[in-house]
Write a structure and sequence with these properties.
Structural class: alpha/beta
Number of domains: 2
Helix content: 40-55%
CATH class of the largest domain: Alpha Beta
Strand order of the largest sheet: 2-1-3-4-5
Number of helices: 10
CATH superfamily of the largest domain: Response regulator
CATH architecture of the largest domain: 3-Layer(aba) Sandwich
CATH topology of the largest domain: Rossmann fold
Length: about 210
């Protein structure tokens, strides 16, 4: 079944390019667009997309602020940040606001669709070369260990792979499981850690000392 996609992009040429990239693809359905954060907050609850492509450099209400507002809504959706530059600070801020990953504008159609499908499946899109700095940005002060459920060795391996910037499928190759089974294990990890996303799971595990990079 195809993934429904909504774009938030103030540049008409960039939006046309996105539409062209996604047109006629079996994996995705382009269901709407907004030119501002304010418009997005009005339209997205009605459109109910599975994935939102978010320009993080919007004028007015920024893409980062819009992402934070969207992730506070009760309906589930994933946000994939779009940026013109591989800017660490902007990317990290977007993911802190709730984005599941980012792609640079102009990325190949194959890579864009791969990223959309990956975040819809609960994955995180971050360049492996940025992974260590990314998690250090989030980690802050380590929390004292508390009594509670422990992660199994397999769960730690999966989470460590995700923390290195690998996709669910790539993590599955390491532990010799298919992507669907990896996703099931991640669901168990979420429950144990009391979180709802890859980013929250890795940050929580790092703070509790359950995994190390």
């Amino acid at each position: 079944m195809s993934v429904s996609v909504f774009a938030v992009e103030d540049s008409a040429p960039a939006l046309r390019a996105l539409r062209k990239q996604l047109a006629g693809r079996e994996e995705v359905r382009f269901i709407g667009a907004a030119a501002s954060g304010e418009e997005a907050l009005r339209e997205i609850p009605l459109a109910a997309p599975q994935v939102v492509l978010m320009d993080i450099e919007l004028p007015g209400l920024s893409g980062i602020e819009t992402t934070k507002a969207l992730k506070a809504l009760p309906q589930p959706m994933e946000v994939l940040a779009l940026t013109s530059f591989d800017d660490e600070e902007r990317v990290f801020a977007a993911m802190r606001a709730g984005a599941s990953g980012y792609v640079v504008k102009g990325v190949s159609t194959a890579r864009l669709i791969e990223a959309i499908v990956e975040v819809e499946a609960g994955g995180t899109i971050i360049e492996p070369r940025l992974a260590r700095r990314f998690w250090a940005f989030f980690k802050g002060v380590q929390e004292p260990r508390k009594a509670g459920p422990e992660l199994s060795e397999l769960e730690r391996e999966i989470l460590f792979a995700i923390a290195r910037g690998l996709s669910n499928e790539e993590a599955g190759r390491i532990v010799q499981l298919d992507r669907r089974t990896v996703r099931t294990h991640l669901g168990h990890i979420y429950q144990k850690l009391g979180v709802r996303s890859h980013v929250e799971a890795v940050v929580r595990a790092l703070k509790l000392g359950l995994i190390e990079l």
